[in-house]
Amino acid sequence: MWTGPGRGLCLLGAPGLLLLLVLRATCMAVQFVPAKTYEDWWAYKETLHGSFVPGPPFWGLVNSAWSLCAIGKRQSPVDVNTSQMIFDPFLPPLRLSIGGKKISGTMYNTGRHVSFRPDPVQLVNVSGGPLPYSHRLQEIRLHFGSEDGFGSEHRIDGDSFSAEVQLIHYNQELYPNISEASRNPNGLAVISIFANVSALLLLQGGIRWGKGRWEFRQQGTIPWMDFHLQIGPNPNSFLTRLLNRETITRISYKNDAYLLHDLSLEDLYPETFGFITYQGSMSTPPCYETVTWILIDRPINITSVQIHSLRLLSQNLPSQIFRSMSDNSRPLQPLLHRSLRGNRDPRRPTKRCKGASYRLHG
Question: Which of 56, 80, 156, 358 would you label with 23, given CA atoms 20 to 30 Å apart?
């Protein structure tokens, strides 16, 4: 029976705790390290050294408030089967409002993610697309893997990416803050931008360098992706600001933070008009099913050096054993009967709907 952090419990045949059962042939009590709140008591991989911290299979079992993680029917992330995608010609373009200024904020090592949170005084909003309301940017979160090509939470036709950048917004028209919004309908909107190291990007896209630009050669392994548009050899300039040596070494350990100034958020977005959207959940506890997901259909570049620097970040404090933050993704969840809508016609993937592109407002 699970009794929560800071209390003893009897473990008898519990999945994922085989090591403990081998060490102690009889039922035993394991003393957990006290946590400030249940919100602290989860991980992407079960932790067994000194204390047990539940991984994804246990999220919905250790806390009744997280029950949706186990029994929810609209959970995220998912594997997007593009053959099931519905073309919706009435989806308007996404509209990004950045106030015409560069943004500042703080980058954190949370122990689970690299997280950038803009200054509260700066309003960065998104609307349009599948969103009936304006949503305010709360956080930018990075998911990445220990190997190139494996690290994104979502997959496209079974294919993963080296990283996934998630821009987390809350509905500012209906709710006063993200805490309230996350628990209620139409509360959250998450824009996902996939990232791959350049060499892998070329392999997937079936493109070649010629005449000063990357040219589309043949249909790649992910046909809905917008590889035919301009793809240069340079890394994404926004990620370059976040992941350069001066910055990334300031957040090597859990709870480290570093202030950044004069970031151009529009530099993060690839030049494309296409996206796929579906209704899902938060991909971390408590897994509330209040998220409109928007998956941008063109990946951005990340260099081998940048992805390697992310893998050197520790999910622990300096006084604790090093554990890489990589592979910080929740396993795939079943799509069930949810619809996948896209604004790109698969029969004419290069044709744009009238006005279909990002709109930046000053």
Answer: 56
| Rounded Cα–Cα distance for residues 225 and 203 (Å) | 13
Mean residue pLDDT of the chain comes to 82
- Integer angstrom CA distances of residue 35 from 7, 58, 238, 266, 327: 10, 17, 35, 38, 23
Tens digit of pLDDT for each residue in 85-136? 999 999 999 999 987 789 999 999 999 999 999 999 888 999 999 999 999 9
Q: Which region, left, alpha or beta, applies to residue 157 given φ > 0 means left and ψ of -120 to 50 means alpha?
A: left
Going by C-beta distance under 8 Å and a sequence separation of 6 or more, which residues neighbour residue 249?
none
pTM higher than the cut 0.85: no
From the number of C-beta atoms within 10 Å of its C-beta (0-12, 13-18, 19+), residue 189 rates as: buried
Amino acid at 148: D
Give the tokens for residue 288. 């509330």
- 3-class SS of residue 197: strand
